Amino acid sequence: MRLCHIIQLIRQMGWHVDFLPDSLHADAESIAILEAFGARTLCRPLLSSLPNFLHQHGSAYQGVMLCRHYVAWPHLPLIRRYAPAARVLFDTVDLHHVREMRAARQSGSAWRMRQACRSRRRELRLVQRCDTTFVVSSAERQWLEQSVPEADVRLLSNIHHVHPNDVDFEDRQDLIFVGGWAHPPNRDAIHWLAKEIMPLIRRRLPEVTLHLVGDLPEAARGSLRQPGVHIHGRIPDLDPMLRTCRLALAPLRYGAGVKGKINMAMSHGVPVVATPMATEGMFLTDGQNVLVADTAADFAEAVVRAYGDPALWRTLSIGGIENVRRHFSFDAARDCLGSIFGAMPPLPK
Q1: Given CB 3.0 to 4.6 Å as the disulfide criterion, which of 33, 64, 98, 251 pairs with 256?
Q2: Is residue 212 predicted with pLDDT exceeding 70?
Q3: 17 φ, ψ (degrees, to nearest 5)
């Protein structure tokens, strides 16, 4: 979603945008989505090799955005060689080494810590070698400014529309967690939520249901099935559920970047209960636009409190919407992108 909105904003500035998938493969549905946002997708069978393509067409590009360090690392030399006029933008999406280091500490794995250190070296080298680096959180910007003070680091965070919040407290019920199983922090959060937090909530709110939304393999579902947990898996549209659920939960115990599940819920006016890790770098204040708790017991208590207090619920709802509008809106992203692309006149059509 963030990348599609970035493409949309760049197109509105008058630029042509080509999207090249790292694998050179793209299905018809994905191509149609990207075209709707204004990007031309270059992939097989029309494109057989990225080096060959860049050798022929690289000089036409004035800007190249490389998304995620494991994409940027092998392709940066090609870009520098075949697109020498291009300003190279490294979009971290989030700082992977931060998430990996936290996962290593959570698990106590020495192997994971070695992997995280390798990722850190690679990400910092890319920040040094690219012209501009985008991060999604203010905390990550501060870390990079301290680690690579000579680098040009910009805050380009999640981008959300603010939706009308016309369904009030009394017309909502239940809880929602959104997150794909393939992302390790989500796996940990789902287990912690289902096994430790929900039993505590159900003692106080026996009728409440937790809706788990996102890719979740059948092999994992058996251990999560229990009273009060409804596993939806992947659904085509979140809006209907975000119009009916009373609270969204983000019990993440490690991770990095900013959390789209929090932004998404708040953009619909759904209050969020989250851990300190989940709210990091998101300009949130406990009790004003979010409730924050870091143990299972405290998390359950915060859920019960917000679930049953209409005045608190409305305070959090209004505060969350304002937070998205101020920090995670199209206007905020447009300002950042304009500072980069506005100084680079587009090539003639």
Answers
A1: 98
A2: yes
A3: -125, 125
Judged by phi (left if over 0) then psi (alpha if -120 to 50, else beta), residue 14 lies in left
Across 26-35, 144-153, 212-221, 303-312, least confident range:
212-221
Distance CA 211, CA 281 (A): 26
Strand partners, 230: 211
Question: Using CB atoms within 10 A of its CB, is residue 103 exposed (0-12), middle (13-18) or buried (19+)?
Answer: buried
Tokens 């990996």 locate to: 100
In this structure, the number of other CB atoms found within 10 A of the CB of residue 121 comes to 10
pLDDT value of position 178: 95
Euclidean distance between CA atoms 282 and 27, whole angstroms? 34
Span 146-165, pLDDT tens digits: 999 999 999 999 999 998 88
Read off the pLDDT band of 347 (50, 70, 90).
Answer: low
How far apart, in whole angstroms, are the C-alpha atoms of residue 295 and residue 139?
Answer: 23
Q: Would you mind telling me the total number of residues written for the chain in this entry? A: 349
For the CA atoms of 339, 341, 344, 347, the dihedral, rounded to the nearest 10 degrees, stands at -160
Which phi-psi region, left, alpha or beta, contains residue 262 (left: φ > 0; alpha: ψ -120 to 50)?
Answer: alpha
Which string of DSSP letters, residue by residue, matches 122-144? HHHHHHHHSSEEEESSHHHHHHH
For residue 219, give both structure tokens.
């092999």
**Global pTM value:** 0.82
